[in-house]
Amino acid sequence: MPEARLEDFGSGLAPASEGWFVLNVRDAEWWTSSAFGSGVGFETGEVSFPQLGINISVLEPGQPNCLYHSESQQEDFLVLAGECRLLVEGEERPLRAWDFVHCPAGVEHVFVGAGDGPCIVLMTGARTKDERLFYPVSALAARYGASATEETPDPKQAYAPFERPERGRPPYWDRLPWAQG
Length: 181
Prior knowledge:
By secondary structure, this protein is mainly β. The chain has two domains: 1-48, no CATH class; 51-162, Sandwich (Jelly Rolls), CATH 2.60.120.10. The protein has two helices and 14 strands; from the N terminus they run βββββββββββββααβ. It has a seven-stranded antiparallel beta sheet with strand order 10-7-12-5-4-3-14, with no helix packed on it. Strands 9-8-11 form a three-stranded antiparallel beta sheet, with no helix packed on it. It has a two-stranded antiparallel sheet with strand order 1-2. A hairpin with a 3-residue loop joins strand 3 (31-33) and strand 4 (37-40). It is globular and about 45 Å long.
């Protein structure tokens, strides 16, 4: 298997061809959303990982990483730095650096930044062609701006009220550990 070609798509490097690659988080393509934090997914429209999704999300206090949802696939998460809240199955759990979260298929969840600075979460999830999503209405998630307005399996419908993320580093970039190197 050849090495993937990396290209700058506007806010950092991402794979432009299939193959293996090495990419430092500092140099990777970043996306930022005013509603859902920022992150790097290590994939592009040209190249996606067919078996395992992996990304890093950075959340400011009070900011969810997405809408409260469940998936038909397993997901796992590791808090790398900072603090956040896990909203899971209608409950709220505080998390801090090095807490690991396992979500079997069907578990409703979302992360919300907490504490006094950015929270960094490594996020992974299995992928299959028959993946299904579900966005329930949740009073708990609504308190954090993380609930769909009506139940739906359609991400486009669930996220319709929100602006799309934009390419670019977050405004707090200089406070992140990899920006120092």
